[in-house]
Amino acid sequence: MVNNMYYNHKYFIILILILSAPFFMGADIKNKTIKPTSPVKIQANEMRYYGTERKSTFHGNVVAVSDNYTLTSDDIVVFLNKDMDVSKIQCTGNVNFKSDDIVSISKRADLDHNKKVAVITGDVKVWQGENYLEGEKVFIYYEEERIVVDKGTEKRVTIIFKPENEGKK
Q1: d(CA 123, CA 81)
Q2: How many CA atoms lie within 13 A of 48 on its CB side?
Q3: Could you give phi then psi for residue 3, rounded to 5 degrees?
Q4: Would I find rRNA processing among this entry's keywords (predicted)?
Q5: How far, CA to CA in Å, does 87 sit from each of 8, 115, 121?
Q6: What H or E segment, with its residue span, contains residue 9?
């Protein structure tokens, strides 16, 4: 019984990490980096670049597509460091993520590539197959492989987890 509980707990942690992976936009788990690992094509109604602030803003029906995911949002702001590498990404309004087997929706997603932290807020819902995660705010600490899900003021955290071997005999 104890081994089974340990296995289920371990599997649950792995599941949560898999569910959160999309928010690192092509994260490289082996090297613990959250920088994109493949080209990203971004389309929007409007794009502006602010050189002195090292910031690009994308407004209106923003669609970011990579080899393995599609991210849509009302607005996306990309901050660059002095080496012109992506340091932070802010997605606001109708944030939707889709990959082969993961779908998520939220109102906002903030990714800090330097701190390797993502904060997803606003009625967060994530599906992976038949598994489901729901909360008001999700904190993902990539280097620590730690996730915190907050309930918000009006509802509790919900997780629906279907064991891999359910229904098999």
Answers
A1: 30
A2: 7
A3: -60, -40
A4: no
A5: 35, 9, 19
A6: helix 2-20
Contacts of 90-96 with C-beta under 8 Å, sequence gap 24+, read: 91/62, 95/71, 95/120, 95/122, 96/71, 96/72
Taking only the tens place, the pLDDT of each residue in 68-108 is: 788 899 999 989 888 888 888 899 999 998 877 778 899 99
Indicate the number of domains in the chain: 1
Helix (H, G, I), strand (E, B) or coil at 84: coil
Q: Are 51 and 39 in contact (CB under 8 A)?
A: no
**Contact present, 119 and 141 (Cβ < 8 Å):** no
- Range of the structural domain that residue 137 is part of: 2-160
User: In Å, how far from its chain's centre is CA 81?
Assistant: 21
Q: What is the CATH classification number for the domain harbouring 6? A: 2.60.450.10
pTM of the model: 0.73
Amino acid at 77: V
How does strand 102-112 pair with strand 41-43? unpaired
